[in-house]
Structure formats: C-alpha cells, structure tokens
Amino acid sequence: MNLDDIRTRLHELQAQDLPVHGGRTLAYVYDSGLSEVDELGRAAVAAYAGSNGLDPTAFPSLLQMENDVVGMAADLLDAPASAVGTVTSGGTESVLLAVQSARDARGEITRPRMIIPSTAHAAFHKAAHYFGVEAVAIEVGDDYRADVAAMTAAIDADTVLVVASAPSYAHGVIDPVPELAAAAAAAGVRCHVDACIGGWVLPFAPRLGRDVTPWTFAVDGVTSISVDLHKYGYAPKGTSVLLHRDSALRKPQFFASAAWPGYTMLNATMQSTKSGGPLAGAWAVTRAIGADGYQRLAADVFAAVDAIVDGVASIGALSVVAEPDSTLIALATDATCDPFTICDEMAEAGWFVQPQMAFAGRPATIHLSVSAATLASVEEFLGALRAAVDRAVAHGPVVVDPDVVAFIEALDPAALTDADFDGLLAAAGLLGTSEDGALALPTRMAEVNALLDVAAPAMREALLVAFLDRLSRPAR
C-alpha cells in the first residue's frame, strides 16, 4: 500500500469507531471541547512517539515532564512535601502497582489480602489475579458507599491494603475515605484511594461550592492515590499518576535486575520500553489548560451533571440510582422498559451510553460519564433520552427465552466448550453463516446484553472471554 492509500484506509477504519469529540460518547473517552488543546496534545504525542521512557538518563526531557506532571497532581491532591509519584499507562496499571507495592512491602505475609468494597473497580480483581492477593469484597450499603464497619471487621493480620473509591465507577459516589483510612492506619495497613476517574475534577468541586467527602492526602491514613490524566485531565490516552505519601512507600514498586549479561534493568512501572508520546501529550495538555482552566472545565461538567439529573426527574420510567458526587451518573428503569433497549435507541440517535449488568441483587443500569463538552448539548441529550425511553417502553422489556436461561444456568463456566458457546451465539443471532464461524455483530445489542444479564458473574466472564477469543483472530 502506498502512503496515501494507508491514510485513506485509516480514515475508513476510524469511521467505524465511536466519536471521541463532540460530547456524545459518554464512556471510554473524555472531551474537554477545547479543539486547539486536543491538537496540541496529539502533536506532542507524535513528537515523542519514538522516545523511550526506559532510561531517564537517555531521555532527560521525559524525566523532567514526568516530574512536572507528578508535581501538578501532588498539588491537586493535597500531597505532603514528602510525596512521590510515577506516571503509568493508565488507571489499571496504577492500581496494579498500588496492590503490588502493598504486597511486597509485607513480604513476610504468605497469603496477603486486600479489603475492597464490592463497587471497587475490576482492576483490583485483576491485580488479585496477577499478584496472588486475595480480594475480599465487602458488600456496600444501600447508599452504594463502602460499609466502614464491615470493612474494618474484615481487616486481619494478613491484610496488606484497604481500598476506597473517589468515586466508584458504577454509581459515581465517594466512599467514606476518612473512616476507612483511619481503620487501616489503626491496623498498620496501607490505604489506597482509587481516584482514577475523579482525581482531576473533584479537587475543584469545593472551590465551586460543592460538598465533597474528604478523600485526598489531607486525610490521615491515605497512603496512595491513583488519578488518570486521560480522563478529566483531558490528555491523550493513556496516562495516569500513582502517588505515594513518601518514597519509602513507593520503593517496593521499583524493579531492578542485574541477573543477566545485558544492561541492568530498572523499572518504575510494569513496562520497560514505553513511548514518551503519552507523557508528552499529558504534559502539554496540563500546561495548556492549567489550574484555572481545569476549574472552568469542572464548572462546565458539574453544570452538565446537574442538568442531566434534573432532566431525568421528569422522565417517568427513569431514576438516578445515587445522587452523584462527581461526574458519573447511573440510571435505573422501572418495569416498563429495560436499560439495554434504551442504550440501543440512544446509539441509533447518535449518543453512546454504557449498559451495566445486574449485580448482587441490584438491577441493570445505564452509565453516563459526563464530560465538559457535554454541557453544550445537554438539552439535545435529554431530548434524545426521553425519546429513547418512549420507544423502549413501547417495545417493552427484552425477555430472554426461558429455554436459553435454563441452558446458561446448566453450563459450567470452567468447562465452557466451543459447542456450548456456538449454541449461545446462535441463540443470540451472533453466529455468522461462513464456514469459519465468524461472528456477525448486530447493530442492536439489547438481546445480547439481556442474555449476559441473566448469566451469573462467573458465566458472564467465561462467555466474554470466549467472545473476545473469537473476535481476536489474525487477518490473513
């Protein structure tokens, strides 16, 4: 392919994706609405795409930019002068490193545990899987916030970490960080606050007159915080910052190895070689927006959240699951319709909203990650939402065939076969007619999501792993 053909093909491929600008994608991407800043970030990524963050002595500009970005994060999060931080590839890597460093700091414990609310991000379960740390998930209260008494009671001699969210992704509420951090400190245990999604916007809430539960390093007992720059820092994907209260807490995060004849490996994160592009993009964007700019963006996004919450109150079939503390909103439906059909109807109207499955006896919901760019089109969004709900009510809730439900319930997720999976694909209308068994993805996903919704979490995981395996096959 010549260069022009490749560029054309890239544009054709990208046309199939969700839009990343315009404020109409309310998950996965975060839009400041500042086109010149976005262009600056992309230019910085391109300029540093070939730079290697492996060795800070070889690329000292990357070290300078990292220290600048970490310093800005430390100022936002009320970090003491002793605080140190590292730029990672995203929130999941920040969480993984927080868990790994907590585990390795207590190397004498042979069966380490971490106490997390049931609403903690799935990245903590990933860390548990990777690092052999048992994730003890404690059910949250009726307000969707961590149950302090139950989590405190779960702390024992093998506990290496207590986790809180600011806010939780699924429901957008902040856990009682002061009480959880105090309980952790009393037991001599680290306390990590997952502020990946809220950490770059919540610091501005009090300045705008909004009440926010304390959650930063101003809270005694908080030992580390993760905050993503590619969310409400509005930087290019993917950068996050993991901050520790002091360097002694961070030291177990580092990895060094001279156990081979090559260069002595020294890593601050899980990656060795890594492009300097995302870091440069984050540095450029944060410098361009600045603290005052972020406060203006925070004012816009909070205004959008308030307007959406007020608007939903007039849509009879919908309700807000929990009064949002930050920029995330969860919506529930009554018995006249279902969230999955509403998500499909919104997609057809040019809006992406994210379905969330039923969990722990609580029903499925619709998730909204509101961006600053959403404010300009809130009324259009609410109009589309009202129309989507009306069509979903007219359609009625999606019903999964009882025979399919029985089939799913009879399956063993640990022994799911290709034949089992093909049977479910056929039932969901996802199996193509080609001989290679290629997936035929539908334009509407309500029936598929409803099928997943009736599956137990372990079966849902097995089905999605099989689905990803089937999707991820080489083009030959």
Automatic annotation (TrEMBL):
Keywords on record: Aminotransferase, Lyase, Pyridoxal phosphate, Transferase
GO function terms (MF aspect): transaminase activity
Chain segments annotated as coiled-coil in the UniProt record: none
Superkingdom of this protein's organism: Bacteria
Pfam families: Pyridoxal_deC (PF00282)
Co-factor requirement: pyridoxal 5'-phosphate
Matches recorded under InterPro entries: GrpII_AminoAcid_Decarb, PyrdxlP-dep_de-COase, PyrdxlP-dep_Trfase, PyrdxlP-dep_Trfase_major, PyrdxlP-dep_Trfase_small
Homology family: Belongs to the group II decarboxylase family. Sphingosine-1-phosphate lyase subfamily.
Name recorded for this polypeptide: Aminotransferase class V-fold PLP-dependent enzyme
Organism from which the protein derives: Nocardioides dubius
